[in-house]
Design a protein that fits this description.
Length: 445
């Protein structure tokens, strides 16, 4: 900290000195430009006038670098002076400044130009012990502050040690509280000492208790939503049959077939939900090659009556021969929840666009709606369990805040990725990326 402030202060003074001596050198050069030639006699009168202006010390040379004024000048480092004069005679300005012995020493070299020709050079020198004294006083002040900070740090260390000892007692009391039924304690301690061991024991206890509680909560939440999806499809299809007296027999047969498929799915889902007694445990691995296009077509057929009841049009754009390594139920859950959300939270006479295409080695599914969208502050939380952006409207639409969280968990379980973004003209766009699965030819070669 001391080095930074002192360096910055010194550099500011250097900049100030450069401006002063360069302006003085330029003033002298401008006065000498009126002379036809620089000689010891011609510069004498100009130099005497300049002495009266308060310029403390300056040197004038001719175009060969010979000193014309003052005549009795002596340089501690004549070679360095000669080198800098030659640079100035080459048409360049030179500035140097040092801080030593408690004083700032600054100098500026500049050429004297008359009608485009360099006829000499000017060197202005300035010594400033006053600002050097200010800088030294600042250094002393900073050192005093540093000592105060060190003392303060020692005091703080003592306070921290006392705090650690107090936390040991807190850890023991927290363990006792958790054993009596309070599960909200969590301690994060690093190291290998006794306090860290106590923290590990405490965290192990709370993790086990929290695991049991999470099993119950996730089972209830997942069970209710997983069972709701096929039941909703059955209800939609049966209502469509009952409300359409003139429905064609082929359509009725197709809907009844879909109801049977949903009943089978319901029974299968019920069995699989029983495996959720382990925290975040996946279902048994039954993945196989699934044609995503066929699943999307089936899902849209299931949701078309819902879309019609909301006045929403469904626009599919589905490429063929795009398979993923998954189960039909998992892909169905993803498509169903995304499209159902897009329908329920859309505007009247809106549209839901469903695209399926290949991008590199990925199968990409996008669901875009023309709805009201999601506020920016809510966007990072829409995949959280039980999170609702508009609670009143979610309740009215029958939402439970689990649909998108199931999409998130399902896609992540398939090593995919799901993202959501707000569209500029309103509405939302959800994108799901799966790794494409290529069937191997078992009869080849």
């Amino acid at each position: 900290m001391n080095t930074y402030f002192l360096t910055e202060s010194r550099d500011l003074i250097f900049d100030s000195k450069q401006m002063v001596v360069e302006n003085q050198a330029l003033t002298i050069a401008q006065n000498l430009e009126e002379l036809y030639m620089l000689t010891a006699e011609t510069v004498q009168g100009v130099a005497e006038n300049l002495d009266a202006t308060g310029i403390a010390y300056f040197v004038i040379t001719d175009d060969a670098g010979n000193v014309l004024y003052p005549a009795d000048i002596f340089f501690e480092d004549g070679n360095l002076f000669a080198e800098r004069i030659q640079v100035a005679l080459g048409g360049n300005d030179v500035f140097h400044s040092t801080f030593r012995g408690g004083s700032f020493s600054s100098g500026a070299f500049t050429p004297v130009i008359r009608r485009g020709n360099i006829i000499g050079a000017v060197y202005v020198h300035n010594e400033d012990p006053d600002q050097g004294e200010v800088l030294l006083e600042m250094q002393s002040t900073l050192q005093t502050i540093s000592v105060i900070i060190i003392v303060f740090s020692v005091v703080m260390v003592a306070v921290l040690i006392w705090s650690v000892m107090r936390r040991i007692t807190s850890v023991l009391n927290a363990i006792k509280s958790v054993r009596e039924g309070e599960y909200n304690y969590r301690i994060n301690l690093s190291g290998y000492d006794e306090l860290a061991l106590l923290g590990d024991e405490f965290n192990s206890l709370t993790d086990r208790l929290r695991e049991t509680d999470e099993i119950r909560r996730r089972f209830v939440a997942d069970a209710s939503h997983e069972l709701k999806t096929p039941l909703a499809s059955i209800r939609l299809l049966s209502d469509s049959i009952l409300q359409s007296a003139d429905m064609e027999s082929e359509t009725v047969q197709e809907f009844v077939s879909d109801i049977g498929m949903e009943a089978v799915r319901l029974a299968r889902t019920t069995e699989k939900l029983m495996t959720l007694t382990r925290l975040d445990s996946d279902l048994p691995d039954e993945n196989r090659s699934v044609d995503v296009r066929e699943v999307v077509i089936t899902t849209l057929r299931m949701l078309r009556p819902l879309a019609q009841s909301y006045g929403i049009s469904l626009t599919p754009d589905l490429h063929e021969d795009l398979c993923v390594f998954a189960t039909e139920d998992s892909v169905y859950q993803v498509v169903f929840n995304l499209v159902e959300n897009a329908i329920k939270y859309n505007k009247p006479d809106g549209n839901v666009s469903v695209r399926l295409y290949e991008e590199g080695s990925a199968v990409v599914l996008t669901v875009t709606d023309t709805g009201v969208g999601v506020p920016e502050e809510d966007l990072p939380h829409i995949f959280d369990r039980f999170y609702r952006v508009d609670k009143a409207r979610s309740r009215e639409a029958g939402g439970s805040g689990l649909g998108l969280s199931i999409v998130w968990d399902t896609v992540r379980g398939l090593n995919g990725k799901v993202t959501a973004e707000q569209l500029p003209d309103g509405g939302m766009s959800f994108q799901v990326r799966f790794t494409r699965y290529y069937l191997r030819d078992t009869h080849g070669e």
